[in-house]
Specification:
The strands form two sheets. The protein has a two-stranded parallel sheet. By secondary structure, it is largely without helices or strands. InterPro entries: Peptidase_S8/S53_dom_sf (IPR036852). One of its GO terms (biological process) is protein processing.
C-alpha cells in the first residue's frame, strides 16, 4: 500500500512494543517496509544467506535446538517430548545467534511439508446436548521427526454464546 505508515497501527505505536523493520542485503529498505517513528531497529532479510537451502521449516526446528535458557532457576521450565526445555512464557529460551549459525552449518534438512487430510465430516448436534466429541485415530503413519499440527473447523451454531471448543 503506497503512503501507508506503521505509525497508524495502534499495536506498533504501543509503548510496550518494539517495532522492527527490514533491510535488504545492500542495507536498503525493503519494498514492503513502512516508515514511522516507532521503528527501533532493522534486521537484514533476503540477499545471499549462509545456507541458501534452509527453509522456514528448518529455521523453525533450529531455533529451539539452538536457544539458551535465560534463567534456569525459573520454575516454569518443562522438558517436552523431544527432550528440549520449554517455558510457557519464554518458549524455548532466547535466541543464541552464534549457536544458531553453528548448528545450521551442520543441519540435516527436514524436507518438504507432508500434509495428511481427513475427509469432511458433518455432525448434527441436538439441542441441549452438552458434549459432542469427535475423535480421529490415525493408523499406519510412520514416526515423523516433528509434527506441525493444524486443525481447521467450520462451525455453524445458532447461539454463539452456547458454543465452546477445546483441542
Amino acid at each position: 500500500m503506497s503512503g501507508d505508515s506503521c505509525g497508524a497501527d495502534g499495536f506498533v505505536s504501543s509503548p510496550d512494543v518494539i517495532a522492527v523493520s527490514a533491510v535488504d542485503n545492500l542495507g536498503q529498505k525493503t519494498m514492503y517496509s513502512e516508515p514511522c517513528s516507532a521503528i527501533r531497529v532493522s534486521v537484514p532479510v533476503g540477499g545471499s544467506p549462509e545456507i541458501p537451502k534452509l527453509t522456514w521449516r528448518d529455521i523453525s526446528h533450529l531455533l529451539p535446538w539452538s536457544s539458551r535458557i535465560p534463567n534456569p532457576n525459573d520454575k516454569g521450565w518443562l522438558v517436552n517430548g523431544a527432550g528440549l526445555f520449554h517455558h510457557p512464557y519464554i518458549g524455548f529460551g532466547t535466541i543464541d545467534c552464534y549457536r544458531l549459525v553453528k548448528l545450521a552449518k551442520q543441519w540435516n534438512f527436514v524436507g518438504p511439508l507432508c500434509v495428511l487430510t481427513y475427509k469432511k465430516e458433518v455432525y448434527s448436534v441436538p439441542d441441549n446436548w452438552a458434549n459432542l466429541q469427535g475423535k480421529k485415530k490415525t493408523n499406519n503413519v510412520q514416526h515423523l521427526f516433528q509434527c506441525d499440527d493444524q486443525c481447521s473447523a467450520g462451525i455453524i451454531h445458532q447461539y454463539k454464546s452456547e458454543y465452546a471448543q477445546s483441542w
